[in-house]
Amino acid sequence: MTTSVTLSANAARQINTIISSQAAASLLRIGVVGGGCSGFSYTFDLDTDVQPDDLLLERDGAKVVIDEASLPFLEGSEIDYVDELIGASFKIHNPNATAACGCGTSFSV
């Protein structure tokens, strides 16, 4: 499976930091589900298994998987990690999103 989803160096560092403190997790699973104030929301979960239809992204030892159903919503996106005055979080720069809520956790396409 070919994709244009990318993982920033900041995101890879943070994933490695999180995973190193978790005995039962080896990767970050990112998905898209219906809901949120704009129609869709991102999900972030720690996981141990890559499913056959998952897209696996790797950078600097960090592993991220995206399920097949979520991939069309994330195509062309960059997964980043930002540390700002209002807080630190994973941020998805998604060119498919036509609108987003103020908190940045939900979007519409």
From TrEMBL:
Listed SUPFAM superfamilies: HesB-like domain
Recorded GO CC terms: iron-sulfur cluster assembly complex
Ranges of residues in domain Core: 5-104
The keyword Acyltransferase belongs to this UniProt entry's keyword annotation: no
Alphabetically ordered keywords of this record: Iron, Metal-binding
Superkingdom in the source lineage: Bacteria
Protein name stated in the entry: Iron-sulfur cluster assembly protein
Species of the source: Maricaulis salignorans
